[in-house]
Amino acid sequence: YGYELAGALRAGKTVLTAWSAQPEAGLVGMIAGAGFDAVTMDMQHGGHHEASIWDGVAAVLLRRVPAIVRVPVGRFDMASRALDFGADAVIAPMINSVEDARALAAFTKYPPLGERSWGPTRGLALRGVEGGNAYLHSANADTLCFAMIETRAALDALDDILDVDGIDAVFVGPADFSIAWTGGQGVDATLDDMMDAVADVAARAKAKGKLAGIFAVDPAMAPRYAQMGFGLIAAGFDAAIVNRGAQAVLSAARGG
Ligand code: 3PY
Ligand code: MG
Predict the structure, then answer these.
(1) CA of 150 to the centre of ligand 2 (A)
(2) Ligand 1, atom 1: closest residue by C-alpha
(3) Residues that are catalytic
């Protein structure tokens, strides 16, 4: 099992990732086995922590599904660790300046691109690969670094952020984006009058040869986001999966 996520996205495929907030590897593995193209474990707003990432990445890779980790704000060290634990990609929230983007790239890419420190033992063991030069030489391309664009400052700095070597992709957080868009008046990830600006993020990423992703609060938004050019689309929140599944089971058991 290699690093198919980067190849799929670079080939222009739409990758639907589940979004895991519950820090429990059994559930994470179940969701990975349900047919998603990837599973993202959320350490920013979800309950995931270092121990659950250690177990969760393994549970996901066991299903031959790519594992993605969203780290907490400013935790570039954790981005390195998530890759060491075997993640295929990291998503870093609130990358609001070119300095943030450079720091993120430094922690996620090996020299000469960045300053990532050596130690991917766990990730390689999960894949049955011996450590060494093969990973050193391929990891910068095969593991992906997503910078979240979700503030006015990030939007203003977008082209400079995209120009940072080692930033492979941007990822739009439409909830925070809507708070910025309305000047703090409300949170509405589906706000219609910001959709052109959201689409523009994907277009500008593509123009610079970079990838783009987005969080779909409503899974029915995914096709629209794909049309805008977003390759990685988060469209399967674990709480919603459990709730909807329970409702369907109960409804069937009660005779529809
Ligand atoms: C946002 O919508 O702000 C996000 O960070 C998605 O999780
Ligand atoms: Mg956000």
Answers:
(1) 6
(2) 173
(3) 45
Pull the structure tokens for residue 179. Answer: 């708070």
Q: How far is the CA of 149 from the centre of ligand 2 (A)?
A: 8
Token reading at 94: 């609130």
Per-residue tokens: 158:
């977008």
How does pLDDT run across 183-242, given as a tens digit for each residue? 999 999 999 999 999 999 999 999 999 999 999 999 999 999 999 999 999 998 999 999
Residues of the chain with pLDDT under 70: 1-2
Domain ranges of the chain: 4-228+238-253
Ligand 1 atom at minimum distance from 174 CA: 2
Taking the centre of ligand 2 as the mean of its atom positions, its distance from the CA of residue 184, in whole angstroms, is 14
Q: Report residues whose beta carbon is within 6 angstroms of any ligand 1 atom.
A: 93, 150, 173-176, 189, 215
Q: How far apart are CA 15 and CA 248, in angstroms?
A: 25
Residue nearest to atom 4 of ligand 1 (CA): 173
* CATH entry 3.20.20.60 includes domain 4-228+238-253: yes
The bound ligand whose nearest atom lies closest to the alpha carbon of 173 is 1
The length of the chain, given as a count of residues:
256
pLDDT at residue 129, rounded to an integer? 82
Decide: 153 and 96 in contact? Cβ < 8 Å.
yes
- Report CA-CA distances (Å) from 251 to 24, 135, 238, 246, 256: 27, 49, 20, 8, 5
254 forms bridges with which residues in the sheet?
A: none
